[in-house]
Design a protein that fits this description.
The protein is α/β, with parallel strands linked by helices. The chain has 14 helices and 13 strands.
């Protein structure tokens, strides 16, 4: 990547469009260890939010998170007319997310033409997954024709949790720890990490795989899906809407897509949605324990852990057979502060597996990716 416009410059605005919110962070320089300002807004208010940010802060560089870069885009990419068109062609791979990222780029170009934009991709962290963890049981010709693989997503969040573990335990990259990282927000995912590298993840070809999510179904029997398409006469677009926008906690509960609201709701349907959500997390912890050959730590991050660390503690209850002592005599997680970040210890000091809830600092992970590409 040409670094002419970014070296020794200050004012980096990091834009992180999610499925329901737009997060942003302002760094005084590309090398700044922490943001000098940050915030978030509803994703529907992206136009006014970006215009306001550009008016308030001196910006030399924009970094925008794209969930899916497909097979071709993994490392940071300068956004220009050509690359924008190519990214737009990938919209169907992550219809909820990539559309928001493209909109952010378009609004940036309209408000600040000529300002350099760099796209970073959530799939980068999982790009080197072991071959067996990338594969599907499809005909090889189909796999090769469309470059089908398990991509993995929420990479910047999982990378941030790994970095947070190193900070907490005074270790560095390349350690021999066996970790499970758990990202819980509107979208949810888990990763198994060994020796500083991911070896498996719950999300696959698209972000609608694995755990039950806010409006996404997660794991589903493909035979059931084709059966429903025939019974309900769903076309591909209708199927996408059902799986991505009408399912998950919202579809099961019929009440809300907000986990905080479901935890307070006393209906049987709401409780069922919460139970299935926690069940899939616990089931995946067991599976990753087997894949990793043991376990040293579990790290939770995302909107749910940040606002309800006690809920994460409930997920870990009765997992002593995996070496997790959730410290049942202390109902509330123990608050710690490391490098200015509030971190909750979810297990007792005697627990063989150390479990934490923390802020993963996705924005800094995104800048780490850009910095690396400029070296």
């Amino acid at each position: 990547m040409n670094n002419q416009h970014t070296q020794n410059k200050s004012g980096v605005l990091v834009i992180n469009p999610g499925s329901s919110s737009l997060k942003w962070a302002y760094f005084k320089s590309l090398a700044a260890s922490s943001a000098s300002a940050s915030g978030q807004n509803d994703v529907g208010k992206v136009s006014s939010e970006i215009a306001g940010l550009l008016s308030r802060y001196p910006v030399e560089l924009i970094v925008i998170r794209f969930v899916h870069g497909g097979h071709d885009f993994v490392t940071p990419l300068t956004i220009d007319e050509v690359s924008f068109r190519k990214l737009r062609e990938l919209q169907s791979l992550a219809p909820i997310h990539n559309q928001s990222s493209l909109l952010c780029s378009k609004i940036m170009s309209e408000n600040a033409p000529g300002l350099r934009q760099i796209a970073v991709f959530d799939t980068e962290f999982f790009h080197t997954l072991p071959r067996v963890a990338q594969m599907y049981g499809l005909p090889r010709k189909i796999m090769e024709k469309y470059n089908i693989r398990r991509f993995g997503f929420h990479g910047f969040a999982h990378a941030g949790m790994l970095k947070g573990w190193h900070t907490l335990h005074g270790t560095g990259p390349g350690g021999d720890e066996r970790l499970i990282t758990v990202q819980l927000g509107s979208g949810c995912s888990m990763a198994a990490i060994s020796n500083g590298r991911p070896i498996d993840c719950t999300m696959g070809f698209t972000p609608n795989d694995g755990l039950l999510m806010s409006t996404r179904c997660g794991d589903i029997d493909p035979g059931l899906l084709t059966w429903l398409q025939k019974k309900e006469n769903w076309n591909p677009d209708q199927t996408d809407r059902i799986l991505n926008n009408k399912s998950g906690w919202l579809g099961l509960s019929g009440v809300s897509s907000n986990m905080a609201e479901l935890l307070q709701h006393d209906s049987i349907a709401a409780r069922l949605a919460v139970n299935l959500f926690t069940y899939r997390i616990r089931k995946t912890i067991g599976a990753y324990y087997a894949v990793l050959g043991g376990l040293d730590g579990i790290i939770f991050s995302g909107g749910i852990p940040e606002h309800s660390p006690g809920f994460c503690k409930e997920i870990l209850a009765n997992l002593q057979h995996l070496g997790i002592d959730s410290d049942v005599e202390n109902k509330l997680p123990i608050l710690n502060t490391f490098s200015g970040i509030e971190t909750y210890r979810l297990t007792s000091p005697r627990s063989p597996v150390a479990c934490w809830s923390m802020c993963s600092n996705e924005a800094r992970s995104m800048l780490d990716s850009v910095e690396k590409s400029l070296q």
